[in-house]
Amino acid sequence: MSHRISWKLAWRNFKAHRRLNLPYVFAIALMLALEFVMVSLIDNHYIQTRHQVLPTIMKLGCLIGGILSVIFILYAENFSQKQRKAEMGLYTILGLENKHIRRMLAKERLIKTALVVPIAVLEGYLIGSLMFLLLNRMMNETGVPLMEYPFSLIAAGVVVSLYLGLQVLLRLQTLWQLHHLKPVDWLQASRRGEKEPNGNLMLGILGLGLLILGYVKANQSGNLFNSIPIFFLATLLVIAGTYLIFTSLSIWGLKALKRRPNFYYKKAHFLSLSGMLYRMKANAVSLASIAILSTGVILTLGLTLSLYRNMNQAGDQVLEREYLLEEANLDIPSEAAKELLDQGIQQVTERVMISNGFFHQSLQTIAYLQDGVLHEVPLNAQGKSDVQGFYLLVEDLASYQARTNEHVELAANEILLASNRPDLELPQEIELANQHYKVKAPAKKMASWNMAVDSLAIVVPEGSDLKQVQASYRMADLGADHLSENPINYRYFFDAQGDLQDLNLVSDDLLQKGLVLYSRQQMKRELYSVNGGLLYLGVLVSVILMMGIGLLLYYKQLSEGLSDQINYNIMKRVGLDEGMIKQTIRSQILWIFILPLIAAMVHTLAAWRLVFGTLQTILLVNDQVLIISSILIIVLAFILVYLVFYLMSSGVYYRLVNQDNSPNNK
């Protein structure tokens, strides 16, 4: 057979099987396109600059996404090859030699590759660009600078290499089958059902053990950024455990139901249970993949929504008044800072009318807590991870009352104390600056918790106590060989009436004198510019995962429908009415719909400490009610979207199985 003839045969076969090949091409291309977007995000400028470990997290995400892509491609390829086995046997009987079939199949694979690769790269770039354009438009009013999405040659190379590498392996598998199988084996293979899988209880127990170990490891890491290797190991353990449970325990459970005659020999149960067992091996892999992707969607969107809602709340509470005036250079002496602040206030009052103003003095330093005593951190211990230090945010009672509008009375030996660590048991008495204090009550409106480290907020009775804390807890400047006192920060909060444009004009003059004027709107814009990109990333990754779920659901229903056509036609011929067919389909849909959701809910619940730790220490979200409500909102929304996906894809399945493709009806 010449190359020209083999090309013609390959192209004719591709067109003849377009109902099978076109979904394959577009499904694989879309899966690779999603991987393209994930890989391209690694080199994105925002991700490179937002946090030092964020690129590593993205690389691990790409690796996990690549694993899922490989599983999906192998699943799709296995289904496609099974549909063609009888055709291969027929070619052999008609006189084609193995080398001719190999040549023809190689060219068919080249045709698919020529379609999949450019479509995948183009789709990936268009999806990424469209999402960035949409999110930039949505965030335009917040003042966040636009994020760019340049074309990534590295991402294109990774996607092409991944697909070509798999095609080489699949080509070797095809060559092995052509060499070892006889024509009669090919002819019978397409009509031979898969052997009923055996539920291996030991593998199921192993999967359960891996799952529990993964949960433990994930919670040991504390937060997503704290220990990347532990988090990655936990993720792999959970993925492996999920696949083993779905492929082993699920089959074992179905066989246990089959052994119950009162359950199994009912019409609806008999058909649906037999169908699930018959194809459970393929179903289990896809269901496990859907469960993993669903968990990723819920966790990613839960983090994103919590961050977004917290940003809105923090934006409204970022300043106690509309404006804040403070010294730009914190190293100047306290008396000079007070005098400079008074001059600035005088200059502002010449431009606008000030109301609701108040002075505020506070101190920020570090200490470590041991046996109810706050100690100064020695010079040789600062910056070391083995010292359990706390960041202290200290203010006097007058400043606290002015800031919160709360009336609190403190005796000379009493303080207010709170921490951003919910697991920290605060002492009833504490030694601070060599003085013994009673902790009166944790305050609800302590200093701002926009800190990514363990912190203590303290309210002392008088300004003199604040100065005593300043002298008792010194810090070392970067590169310094000695400890020095941190300056007390003096600030003035106020509202303003009048022509507020005048404040913008006076702002430059104040800056030249060493004072900075902040507005609430300006602080909100800065808050959005710092965390706005994480919103981009969260929404983008979630959309990618949702598309992957939809793709798995659609292709799974398509492949199952094509496989089950003959079986359901036989059922109709032996007298099974259409109503029973629909009931059987609904029963199987219920199984397939519920199982991944249950697994995703369990994974999400097990990852709760990891989610809260990440939000608290990195994304600065400390409101547990906000986090829980955000997760619940995402779970409900996801269930609705998932239900829509499955109803649409099950319609495809139902139409396929009701097509009569028997020879007598062609």
From TrEMBL:
GO terms for biological process: transmembrane transport. It is a multi-pass membrane protein. Its main location: membrane. Residues 65-160 form the ABC3 transporter permease C-terminal domain. It comes from Facklamia hominis CCUG 36813. Keywords: Cell membrane, Membrane, Transmembrane, Transmembrane helix, Transport. This is ABC3 transporter permease C-terminal domain-containing protein. Pfam families: FtsX. Belongs to the ABC-4 integral membrane protein family. It is found in: Cell membrane. GO terms for cellular component: plasma membrane. The chain crosses the membrane at residues 21-42, 54-75, 110-133, 153-172, 201-218, 230-254, 284-308, 533-555, 589-612, 624-648. The lineage of its organism: Bacteria, Bacillati, Bacillota, Bacilli, Lactobacillales. It comes from the Bacteria.
